[in-house]
Amino acid sequence: GDSVTQMEGPVTLSEEAFLTINCTYTATGYPSLFWYVQYPGEGLQLLLKATKADDKGSNKGFEATYRKETTSFHLEKGSVQVSDSAVYFCALSDRGNTPLVFGKGTRLSVIA
Amino acid sequence: EPEVTQTPSHQVTQMGQEVILRCVPISNHLYFYWYRQILGQKVEFLVSFYNNEISEKSEIFDDQFSVERPDGSNFTLKIRSTKLEDSAMYFCASSSDRSGYTFGSGTRLTVV
């Protein structure tokens, strides 16, 4: 079945450091890919998405590119802030009938 | 911006009791979902609902669980005879076309 694998956390970075959180997927079709963010004590918020190969999703300085050849959707940000501290979830939705499938989440802590 | 509303935000119940978690999806959405996140673990799919019936459910969604859309606006998850291991954050989500999920802020269920 479909699955998402993302890098284990936690990740601790200094403010203004470069962030990469790796995400790879397995799917039978051509899924849509998502990054969700969960700030402390809050629910899941859509951060960005991409619906087809080579699409780049971007929001709040975060970017991720849908790479079909490597089945990856790595999340990047050039300069993280303390306010980016959260848990980040990679997810996919097959265009067929499968519901959203999440990775295990990566906790990011940014220190000043 | 339209949002998915979940109530209550936190529910404490005694083991063996029944609980009903409530959700108001976005009004023009057609697909509804429940997910849960046990503390520190991944977000897991429970059930999807479309056209007034369950369209898919996971292994977690056994006879202890049921969903209902009683009045055309609310979408409820009922858990009968709660167990300690049902303690989790329960997220409701809705979408119009399976590519744009919107999640609620969650209900934290604590079974004591």
**What is the percent of helical residues of chain B?**
under 10%
Which ranges of chain A are low-confidence, i.e. pLDDT below 50, for 5 or more consecutive residues?
none
> How many individual helices of chain A?
0
C-alpha geometry of chain A: globular
SSE layout and pairings?
The complex is a heterodimer of chains A (112) and B (112).
Chain A: E1 3-6, E2 11-14, E3 19-21, E4 23-26, E5 32-38, E6 44-50, E7 56-59, E8 62-65, E9 75-77, E10 86-93, E11 101-102, E12 106-111
Parallel strand pairs in A: 2-12
Antiparallel strand pairs in A: 1-4, 3-9, 5-6, 5-10, 7-8, 8-9, 10-11, 10-12
Chain B: E1 5-7, E2 10-13, E3 19-24, E4 31-37, E5 43-50, E6 53-57, E7 65-68, E8 75-79, E9 88-95, E10 102-103, E11 107-111
Parallel strand pairs in B: 2-11
Antiparallel strand pairs in B: 1-3, 3-8, 4-5, 4-9, 5-6, 7-8, 9-10, 9-11
